[in-house]
Amino acid sequence: MIKSKTRWLVKGLDAAGEQQAAHLGRELKLPPLVARLLVQRGYEDPAKAQWFLSAGAEDMHDPMLLLGMEQAAARIRQAAQSGEKVRIYGDYDADGVSSTALLLHVFRRLGIDADYYIPHRTREGYGLNNDAILRSAEAGITLLVTVDTGVSAAREVEYAQQLGMDVIVTDHHEPPAVLPQPLALVNPKQPGCPYPFKGLAGAGVAFKLAHALLGRPPLELADIAALGTIADLMPLTGENRILVRCGLETMRSGSRTGLRALAEAADVSLGSVSASDVAFFMAPRINAAGRLKHASEAVVLLTTEDAEQAGNSAAVLDLLNRERQHIVDEMTKEAEELWQVRKRQCIDEGLPEPGVIVLAAEGWNPGVIGIVASKLLERHYKPAVILGIDAQTGMCKGSARSIDGFDMYAALTECAGLMDHFGGHQAAAGMSLHRDRLPEFEQTLCACAARVLKAEDLIPKTLIDLECALSEATLETIGQLSQLEPFGSANPAPRLLINGARLAERRVIGKERNHLKLLLGGVQGADLDAIGFGLGWVAGRLEAAESADVIGELSVNEWNGRRKPQLLLRDLRVSELLVYDRRNETEPLASLRRIADDAAAGGSQLYVVGDEGGLPETASALQLGDSKKHADETGSIAGFYTYEALPADLSDCRELALIGRPPAIERLAAFLSRCPNLEAVHAMYRTAGPAGFPQREHFGAVYQLLRRAGEIPAAIAPDRLASQTGWPKEAVEMMLGVFKELELVTRLGGAIAPAASPRKRELDESALYRDWRQRTEEAAVLQAPLEELARWMRKQLHLTERN
Q1: Whether 296 and 443 share a structural domain
Q2: Residues 601, 669: one domain?
Q3: 405 CB contacts (<8 Å, ≥6 apart)?
Q4: Cα–Cα distance between 552 and 496 in angstroms, integer?
Q5: How confident is the model at residue 800 (pLDDT cuts 50, 70, 90)?
Q6: Residue 329 resides in a domain
Q7: Given CA atoms 433, 437, 439, 445 in this order, what sign does their dihedral have?
Q8: What's this model's pTM, rounded to 2 decimal places?
Q9: CB proximity list for 541: less than 8 A, separation 6 or greater
Q10: Does residue 76 contact residue 68 with C-beta atoms inside 8 Å?
Q11: DSSP letters of 565-603?
Q12: Is the same domain home to 261 and 127?
């Protein structure tokens, strides 16, 4: 058995949904799979589904529906006409950089004397600050336009106005209770805004401002808006879907010098670039500038038309991204160590494990703490807050990431009195506070988590769209599914479940041999490659599995001009107990250590059972001491047990190694009955003993030979009868012993002869016969071919489940 890493939740469709999908497919002439997915995602109405599939630039909303847009556009036009100096005030992440670059292009096109300002992440932090505002006023700026920031900066906006500047705030973050009062506030989420789509990124709001200023959707700038939208994990539904689709088309044209250079540095084929390429390869390099240096390098990349300058900027961003990856790895390791210390501290104090991971340390780069928070969340599936502490001031700058069911912004609102600043949304947020308030901060967040989160919320889940037959996983199907692109937040790539896929091949691949490659075999020759990144540890476990249930996303693998369907494997499970035949191995100790390490890699521990004499020797050889129950130093071996001293409960035993031959089959059955959650058994004992047991007719044949002979010298009787019947000498000796116990033969003067007048006896009346048969049957199970042994063990577990 191999359990899935997550809870699988198959959405599927009920009978009504299937009918809606059939109707939708007929109306729009869609393949059944696409129609079912559309209904699942809320597009059961044909008109609504058609809009989702084919909406273009002409379907974008009127930017003037945004509250404050009319005033913002009028003031910017006034600045253009009067030759005022305008400054764009942006943010240092990819969305802020994209917003800044987009407006720079527009302002320059309108002939506006404009520059930009992005604060330094470490020295200034997020958002407007008074020093930067003062420097803007001193530089003669009369109009300040914010992008991707400002909705929480009421005091800073007021300060700028006191210095004589007009302020236009464009933002998309959640508005606080107290809003700033600029000349114009443009944010679709602000109270009273009638704009029909609330999910715009900062770059999306900037795009709408550009639309208002130019009188048309500036599709030539949609690539920059798409970059910011994808990077900020905005939902790829509604207007965002149109914007990103148009933006990807613009990117593929290769018209933007900076994006060509960025794609080359990221090893992305710009001609076929996808939202996934932007999210995982291009956006991180844009973000790296603001995280480690200053975001201006990224703005230069997105605004220059000089190929050499673009290439230099892309190279700098690529180098910064590599450095960022190294820093993240080191910080994640340190954070994990701190978390383990925190958990042990709670155990020592008799307290429950914290419901929210809150970790802080000096020297942590504030530019990557959000990434580290994401990695801690992924490892432990708990909300995580990571903070860097300024050693001189004691101030902490933090970043939070959350799980489904826990609204991080709402939780931080409960801690508002402890922080100097915070902002964000349900899944991610940022904050600053003094280190002296960290204990109360953690306590308040954990109290909120205890109140809000249920036990099932802390188990990661995988949402599966549909079950799919292996025969459906074709290039044609993948082409059909592409109609739902671009994929991303709120419109993920369809995740499919293939039940009972035969494992025709399983192996590890990659330089570090940490990835899994499967060949899933189907009926009538259908097969499918599956790749599981980071799942290489499970390859050895799969050697005992004939089939598996797998989930993943379909993709196309192109190699040497060939196109093949491929499943990007996300998770798998094997329902049956896995039994591995390691009987009579030449190096059992080395094998045992390897099994234990593999179990640990899979998040499990190995239990070892054997005979009293062999356990101390095994433990000593593994340098674990000679205790019958002793956890090893790495925690990969949970304990050593004997068949004679079975614990009452082994419900935490998932992996078991049998290093000593069970003294009796019922002792092994009793051990298995205490392991209701057992997933794998490694049979590592040595086989011995007879392979068969004579039936009644075989006993009769030996007895008839003895009667015909009259008598046979006892010394040669076993050999003679063995040669005449074909049974081993040891078996014949046992038969003669049974005859003697039943008084069917006598010994006279060193010879064996049949009894003169034997009475009729049943073989079962002989204790020797009964014992011999039991031992032979036990040996037959323990020595049987792997399929038979596995079948017997699985039966014992099924009996345990029924009981």
Answers
A1: no
A2: yes
A3: 452, 453, 454, 457
A4: 6
A5: low
A6: no
A7: negative
A8: 0.77
A9: 2, 578, 598, 602, 680
A10: no
A11: EEEEEEEEEB-SPEEEE-TT-S-HHHHHHHHHHHHHHTT
A12: yes
Give the H or E element holding residue 507: strand 496-509
Pair 436, 474 in one domain: no
**Could you report the per-residue pLDDT of 304-313, keeping only the tens digit for each?**
999 999 999 9
Whether the CB-CB separation of 64 and 75 falls below 8 Å is answered with no
CB-based contacts of 465, cutoff 8 Å, min separation 6: 11, 37, 40, 494, 495, 496
What are 161's two structure tokens? 């106005």
Number of structural domains (the chain) is: 5
Q: In this structure, are residues 58 and 244 in contact, taking their beta carbons and an 8 Å threshold? A: no
pLDDT tens for residues 727-767?
888 888 888 999 999 999 988 778 998 988 888 889 999 99
Task: Evaluate whether residue 36 is within a structural domain.
Answer: no
- Domain holding 110, by residue range, is 61-320
CATH of the domain at 655: 3.40.220
Helix residue ranges, H only, 420-551: 438-452, 475-481
Instruction: Check residue 285 and report its DSSP letter.
Output: H
Burial state string for 90-124 with b = 16 or more CB within 10 A and e = fewer than 16? bbbbbbbbbbbbbbbbbbeebebebebbbbebbee
pLDDT at 71 over 60: yes
| Domain end marker among 546, 573, 600 | 573
Q: Residues 509, 488, 369, CA angle at the centre, nearest 5°?
A: 75
* 225 token code pair: 């808006």
Helix (H) or strand (E) holding 239: helix 238-252
* pLDDT-wise least confident of 33-47, 67-81, 529-543, 787-801: 787-801
Residue 347 lies in a domain: no
State how far the Cα of 219 lies from the Cα of 57, in Å rounded to an integer: 8
| Tally of CA atoms within 13 A in the half-sphere of 190 that contains its CB | 22
**Do 146 and 254 reside in the same domain of the chain?**
yes
Shared domain check, 233 and 134? yes
pLDDT band at 523 (very low <50, low <70, confident <90, very high): low
Domain identity same for 216 and 93: yes
With tokens 């429950």, the residue in question is 352
Domain co-membership, 304 together with 439:
no
pLDDT digits (tens, 9 = 90+) for 535-551: 888 888 888 888 899 99
| pLDDT at residue 772 greater than cutoff 50 | yes
Q: What's the pLDDT band for 211 if we cut at 50, 70, 90? A: very high
Q: Output the domain CATH number for residue 742.
A: 1.10.10
3-state secondary structure of 700: helix
Residue 260 corresponds to which tokens in the numbers above?
């060509």
Extract the tokens encoding 675: 């392991």
The CATH number assigned to the domain holding 517 equals: 2.40.50.460
Distance in angstroms (rounded) separating the CA atoms of residues 479 and 477? 5
CATH (domain of 424): 3.10.310.30
How many other β-carbons are positioned within 10 Å of the β-carbon of residue 660? 20
- pLDDT, one tens digit per residue, over 553-582 is 999 988 888 889 999 999 999 988 899 988
Residues 6+ apart with CB under 8 A from 58: none
In a domain, 54, yes or no: no
Amino acid in position 234 = M
Average pLDDT value for residue range 134-163:
97
Report pLDDT for 634.
42
* 3-state SS class at 230: helix
Reading the block at residue 614, the tokens are 């062999």
* Spatial contact of 200 and 234, defined as CB atoms under 8 Å apart: yes
Q: What angle do CA 567, 10, 241 make, to 5 degrees?
A: 70
Q: What is the DSSP string of 453-481?
A: --GGGGS-EEEE-EE--GGG-SHHHHHHH
